[in-house]
Amino acid sequence: MDSKFNVVYTGLKEGVTAEEFISSFCAKFGISEKKAQQIVSSTSDVVVKKDLDEAKARKYATAFESCGMLIQLSEIAAEPSGLSLEPMAGEKDADSGEVTPSTPQCPKCGSENIQGDECLDCGIYISKYTENQKNSAVQIASNDETSKLTAYNESSDSNPYATPEAPLEKNIISKDGQGSLEGGINGDYDFTIGEIFGEAWERTKGVKGTFLLAWFFYIVVAVAINILFALIGPDPELLIEQGRFSEGMIWAIGPSLVTIPILYPILAGLVLMGIHRSVDADINAASVFGHYRLIIPLTLLVIVTVIFTMLGYILLVLPGIYLSFAYIMAMSLMVDRGMGFWEAMGVSRKAVTKHWFKIFFLYLVLGLLIMAASIPMLIGLIWVLPLSSIIHGVVYKYMFGVESVE
User: Fold this and answer.
1) What CATH fold (topology level) applies to the domain 1-77+139-169?
2) What pLDDT digit, counting tens, does each position of 55-65 carry?
3) CA within 13 Å, CB half, 311
4) How does residue 129 score in pLDDT terms, banded at 50, 70 and 90?
């Protein structure tokens, strides 16, 4: 039987402060500061991964040590897997009638070099160590080595950077208000509509002009494309009325297929501006033209999501309504985390589904606000367009955290 090991945290390396460890550990493993604080403040050793084979245990040990942790690998004693004719510890030998003495072992390092209650190799007092282990409130281990995130990466068994799981409270949002990718997928985020609007409104101060200039670029390009097709193309409805159905459908769909790769990279830039503003990073209106490298994946994203959503409406309507919001974070995941369109769609759908109604009502309120702002000669959009961009960015930050800002 192959040996199994526990990965045990025994303290911090010399010169590493608790604050440095918490910052590094949370950044690398995407967990809350509270969990990291529980580890570092523990008065006894903490099992951070358990029941691993030696290769996986060493991978985890290396990853944890890079955060400043002192790590020991504790071998788990293997249980006998079959019958044996050899006398076991404390068991009477059938031939000799003698009893084989049981040799005590250190529960921490496995050494047999025991004197009284003390292990002479690692220096612990066995009774105290055993009691501390029983009373330790922090046991970070994963019973399910394949986390929900592994549908898009590799399993946590083989990935030493997978988030250690623990029966602690949910990682809602961290101290700086950011979620994590795994937390988003698991639904470990929460907010109120008023909270989102309030934070976004505060972050519009000083940047309204920047967002309005970016929106102006987008609107100018969109208007120019529509004017161009109006000048060079026939009226699709007229063609259909004349019985030229195929030609009419081509002119109805064709302009959209041309518009998507031209407009959506700019829209992706606007989305990323909102995300960056949610964490007070620098933004630049001209940056909206910097995403044309994503023409193909953005085009595929739009086409596939439109097809899926339309099929949902055609089938039973409700699936269409569900999908209209389920993929709302896909573009954000592409531009912030560099995901492919299919992966981004899957992550967005799983994360939004956990709080679908809350997302639905938030964007419903935002849509109504945009409509109201458009009524008095579009004047209200001066405030609402920047606000809408930042609202989306703040929601994304709460769900997944922002990765594209150092």
Assistant:
1) Ribosomal Protein L30; Chain: A, (3.30.1390)
2) 888 888 888 88
3) 6
4) low
Distances (CA, A) of 10 to 55, 149, 160: 20, 28, 18
Tokens matching residue 8: 């045990």
Q: Using one digit for the tens of pLDDT, what is the confidence trace for 23-78?
A: 888 777 766 677 777 787 877 788 878 778 888 888 888 888 888 888 888 887 65
The 3-state secondary structure of 271-340 reads HHHHHHHCCCCCCCHHHHHCCHHHHHHHHHHHHHHHHHHHHHHHHCCHHHHHHHHHCCCHHHHHHHHCCC
Cβ atoms 335, 404 nearer than 8 A: yes
What are the two backbone dihedrals, phi and then psi, of residue 10, each rounded to the nearest 5 degrees?
Answer: -115, -5
| Cα→Cα distances 20→166, 380, 387, 401, 405, Å | 21, 46, 35, 20, 20
Question: Which tokens sit at 156?
Answer: 């946590």
Query: DSSP class of residue 86?
Result: S
Q: Which residues of 263-286 are buried (b: 16+ CB within 10 A; e: fewer)?
A: bbbbbbbbbbbbbbbbbeeebebe
Contact 182, 372 (CB under 8 A): no
CA distance 348 to 62: 32
Q: Rounded to whole angstroms, how far apart are CA atoms 296 and 302? A: 10
User: What pTM did the predictor assign?
Assistant: 0.57
CA distance 278 to 391: 8
d(CA 240, CA 237): 5
**187 contacts 355 by C-beta, under 8 angstroms:** yes
CA distance 297 to 334: 9
Q: Which residues contact 298 (CB under 8 A, 6 or more apart)?
A: 260, 261, 264, 265, 268, 291, 331, 334, 341
Domain ranges of the chain: 1-77+139-169, 86-127, 193-400
Q: Are 126 and 119 in contact (CB under 8 A)?
A: yes
The answer to whether 263 and 291 have CB atoms below 8 angstroms apart is: no
Q: Helices 295-315 and 330-337, interaxial angle, to 10°? A: 160
CB 348 within 8 A of CB 328: yes
**Cβ–Cβ < 8 Å for 328, 291:** no
Distance (Å) of CA 373 to CA 268, 368, 370:
23, 9, 5
